[in-house]
Structures are given as C-alpha cells and as structure tokens.
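Two proteins were folded this term; both appear here.
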Amino acid sequence: MKIPFYWPVFLTAIFCASVSAADLDRQDVEKRLAKADKANPADLRRKDLTDMDLSDLNFTIADLWGSDLRRSNLSNSDLSGLNLDLSVLSKVNFSNANLSNTSIFGVHVGGANLTHANMSNSRFIGVMDRANLSHANLSHANWGADMKNQSMGLMRASLNNVNLSGANLSYANFDRALMRYANFSGANLHNAVLFGVDLSGADFSGADLSGADLTGTSLEDTNFSGADLAGTKFAGIKDKSKLKGLGSSKHLDSAIID
C-alpha cells in the first residue's frame, strides 16, 4: 500500500496556526544579530518574518527554529549549521545562500529559489516540489528517508519537478525520495545514492551518474541522453529498452544493469 505523503504539510499547517507574529523589520533583526553570541543567540524563534528583505545577513548565531520566512529574501545570507526544522520556507529566495550543515525537517520549501545555494552536508525531509536548485551544491547531503524512524508513515523528501540542472549532487543520499520530472541535466551525481527513488519522467541528459546507485528506482520515461553511466547501478531493471537515450549515453558497457 502506498502511504500518502501529506504529513509535512499537515504539520506545517498546525504549527503556523500557533505562531504569533513578532512584527520585526530588518533593522530589528540586524540589532538582534549584532548583540548575539554563542551563549545568547539572536532570538528569532517562531517569529513572523514573511516578505522581508533579509539578504546578505549572517544568521549563524541565531535561533530560527519554526520561524515563518515565506517569500522572504535571504539571498547571499549565511545560515550554515542552523536548525530550521518546522520553519515555513515556501517561495523563499535562498539564491547564493550558505545552508551547509543545516537541518530542515518537516518543512514546505515549495517554489523556493535555491540557485547556486550551498546545501552541502545538509539534512532535509519535507516538500521541495518545483523549487529551483540550479547549480546548487548538495554534495554529501543526506536527504534520504530514515527507515529506523517511520512512526508517522514514510517520511521522505519530495522533490517533484525540481530544477537541479548543473547542480553538484556527488555523494548525496536521496534514498526513497520522490523526484518525478526532476531536471538533472548537466548535474554531477557521482556516487550519489538514489535507491528506491521515483524518477519517472526525470531528465539526466548530460549528467554524470558514474558510480551512482539507482537500484529499485522507477525509471518510466527517464532520459539518459549523453549521461555518463560508468559503474552506474541499475539493479532491478528488467527491461533496459525502457530507458530512454541509452544509445547516446557514455560508458554504458560498464554500467551494471540486471
């Protein structure tokens, strides 16, 4: 039985209803950041920061847990190492932002702009459908399902229709993610884990999939034109004729297809 993927949206809806607006402006945020230290981080926890210009700021000594950042501009800002669990991040502008080593759990980030963002070593479980991650850095990111903690149903990353063209996904883990119609054209997926991922309609044209694990994936109408398949694992693929673009892929002879 397929478990419906609604729990992050449900959690976010409940949480937002309890958030009290802080009515902060950029100057207020800057003052809190200026006074912050490791022992006393800037208190932005569960604050309403919607539609604000928060670009070019350093949030590394701040508490943004559960904050409402919808449609805000955080381009070029440093949020590295933060816990952004249960924050509201839909349609946020994170272009060129530093989100390395962040934790983003139970969050809706749909339609966000993450072009050229650094999300290396980050942890993400939530909804990021239709987000733009073109040329983003997701190397060593762990966006895979935690199969040891599934008391609320299958908690995983939903990345349907995302733009990951030119992105660095090397050594990243997307175990059991939903990535239907995702654009991976020209992306680096060297040694990436895509075990059990739904990649129906995805575009890997010109991508580097060398050493990637696509065991048990759904590959209906998936395009591999010009992709580097050196050592790529396709275990569980019974009919490789269904894989589009294999004729123009690179190093197909060393791909593991069974």
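Next, the second protein.
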Amino acid sequence: MRIDPQDTPSAKLYFAMASIIVPRPIAWVSTLSRYGIPNLAPFSFFTGVTSRPPTVAICIENRPDGSLKDTAQNILETKEFVINVVPSHLAEAMVATSGAYPPVVNEFGAAGVRAVPAERVKPSRVAGVPAVIECSLHDVMEVKDGDEITSRIFLGRVELIVVRDDAVDERGHIDSRMLDPLARLGGSDYARLGEGMKIQRPKV
C-alpha cells in the first residue's frame, strides 16, 4: 500500500496515521470554560516534549466545520488544563467523553466519573486515575493546510505531577505497569501494556 497525501482524503490519512503511530498514550484532558463549565475529553496525539522546562504537547484538530473543539477553546481562554492518565477500568468512561457534546454539557457527569480538585490549577482531576499532570499553557502552534488552520499544538508547562502511591517503589521510581495505562490504536481499538523487556544502553 502506498498513501500519497496529495491525492488521499484527510479522513483516510487520519486513519492510516492513527493505525501506524501506535501505541499512543491517551491524554484525558480536563478543562474549565471561561464560564466555569467543566469539560473532559481524550486526545491521543499527545507526548512529552522536554523535562527542562517540563513540557507536554497535545494536538487538537478542529471540528469538521472548522470550529474549535471545547477543549481547545477552554485552554486558549483559561490557560490551564489537567492530563489524566486513563487506566483500563475507566476505558468506557473515557470513550464516553469523546462525544461531540454541546459546550454546556459537563462530561464528568455524562461519563459517570467524579471530579476532584486539582492542586495548582482550576480544572478538576478525574477521581480514581493513577496519575495526573497539572499544566499551564506554555505556547500554542497553529498547524495550517494552505491558509486554513486545521489544528493546534498546545504546549503545556507541567506545574505538578501526582502519582498514586502504590505505583511508586521504595526508590521513588514510578512503575508504569502499575498505572495500567490504556493506549490508543487505530479505529476503535485500544490496548493495555503487554509484557515488557529490559535493554541496557551501551556504555561508550
């Protein structure tokens, strides 16, 4: 199969990229609107950027009509967000928050999950997740197709990381397996962490 972006519809390109760039961690992002309405939605075009300063990146595409999704609108207006790590037992709740709800809908309630206060930012955390990253907006990069802005990359400055105690060993190291993080594959497919392996870096 060869996929040439020049003659391939954007929807097909998305599904091809989403099936090849796997597994992807899921940022279950909680925000507040400028009117104080909570919002919760998952994004898997998400990664860490650097530890100095501690920074993460989330890419949020526009809606099909070109308008901003609620998460993007909220981050632009309030400059804060929380990344909740999705454990496998909250998979269905996470998927429930991916719906195109109106801005007045609180997705915490729609998905049946409980909100708990964050420590450094105003948006709430999701109760019961194994780790959270509280962020302030560091920068925004607009991604364009010609003159049209199709998505935005949000760089978040990490203000606080909170990890459940049982996922941290006696040396203070985080055991990723204990987080049981859900990963995004293509289409409607998701995955859990499988068997790991250790490979030492070469000493040169």
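The two ends are 40 Å apart (CA to CA). The mean pLDDT is 96. These notes refer to the second protein only.
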